What we know:
Helices cover 19% and strands 31% of the residues. With 415 residues, it is α+β, with helices and mostly antiparallel strands. It folds into 2 domains: 1-323, outer membrane lipoprotein receptor (LolB), chain A, CATH 2.50.20; 340-413, no CATH class. The longest helix has 11 residues, at 297-307.
Amino acid sequence: MAPYASDDNTTAARDAQDDEARGVRRRAARYVVPVAVTGVAAATIGLVPAIADSGSPDLPKISAQQLIEKIAESDVQQLSGTVKITSDLGLPDLGGLEGGLASGMAGPKDGEGSTADPSAKLTELVSGTHTLRVAADGPDRHKLSLLEDAAEYSLIHNGKDVWGYDSASNEVYHGTAADSPDAREKTDEVPATPKDLTEEALKSVDDTTSVTVDGTAQVAGRDAYKLLIKPRQSGSTVGAISVAVDAKTGLPLKFTLTPASGGAAVVDAGFTQISFAKPAASTFDFTPPKGAKVTEEGDAATEKHERGFGEDFPKGLDKGSEGLDKESEGPEVIGEGWNSIAVLDTGGEGMPSGAEVGGDVGGFLDSLGDQVKGDFGSGTVFKTRLINALITDDGKVYVGAVTKDALVKAAESGK
């Protein structure tokens, strides 16, 4: 694999590397799934050194390759702290939707599932500003608490048990870590900490990426290096990713993703307070409160399968993922690097227009989508500030962290 470019390279060198063959990124359509990065630097990194020689505090010089290796080798087992996370995908406010899309995606209705199920609860982190308390003590004890106005949601992994507790509804979700192929899967449903987000970003680092060290900073009272990750291709919606890495432990302390379109960060997550002392054992203790509704993992899975996405969901999309079973081996991926696009064929009709659906749901669809036409036919591009998707009228879906024009071009080439 060719060396990654740093900002110190000449224009000619960058242009030459742009013409080299590039491998398709492994993350394809799974844009927010935590993965391990152990061995990433040794296996795939060939960075031209970019030395941190400015900024405050004054730290020893380090290259981008050395800093990524430091992250990969970080083995922090014990910590506690507070994380502030702000997400701005540019989605419209869903609060006014009373049926349809809201009933299908905003969470379970009364008597259906549990508000404490982490697979639903933690999706709240995709918008707005949230404060989290986190704690860890080795591989089998983790706690994440989402602090809300007058309530708190906690997700606790203690040995073989995984507990979710929603104090607002007094509901409890209980699962068993041993039943999962990965004992941490339940506590990692959605990447919430700078470490989770950085691991996913590093999965996308290849020779289409510029990686440099961009000075130093202080985060939560800790000295840190700043790692800067930028796509070298045009057409991506990702502008840059900045990661503040603890100079002593290698733990990512702050993660910021800014869009190519400019403006506020799409995701900004960072510790405001952190301690590497061993948390008290009682931190991970949990007993369901008196009177709480307890839902077991198996029961919750059965209810989800039986009800799909809800009876009020638009026609053709009310059967959950059943229509995508034939794609179980994974979507086709076209393009390369940060411009890779996942292609799925649902085998059905495309997304209905706002006029066809009508009401609040129709208005929501229109607020997200742009109608497009081409040799492939017609379709709708649904936009956020990061991930965009084109759904054609014949049921094909093109999705990626790319612009609308890139999606239309992909559909033209695959007609």
